[in-house]
Amino acid sequence: MAGEEINEDYPVEIHEYLSTFENSIGAVDEMLKTMMSVSRNELLQKLDPLEQAKVDLVSAYTLNSMFWVYLATQGVNPKEHPVKQELERIRIYMNRVKEITDKKKAGKLDRGAASRFVKNALWEPKPKNASKVANKGKSKN
Asked: Fewer CB atoms inside 10 A, N or C side of the chain?
């Protein structure tokens, strides 16, 4: 569209938006070609279960998002279509996977080291007898 002249079938004001949309569709097409070039089983064998879940969720979310756009182009309000609930369901699972990933990244607590750190950091009063003994020793010298 960038090299083409502006079509009279739509307002001139939206030409830039349509050009951007066309470029985005091209980028999505390239990504899909890349993903489709490798078999799903081959891809999933190389990934751990958490990464497999991420790939499946992103694929499902992308497919449903594209269907959302399709509905909008057909004049159907996607907010009133069951695809909205499906996208929300997928989003919930994506948040669960994110929580699991965050828990794995969180530091582990070394209880022994933590208790030693706290014990040494706290102020401990000296016994009353110890201070008198220390003072008596100084006065003799």
From this structure: C
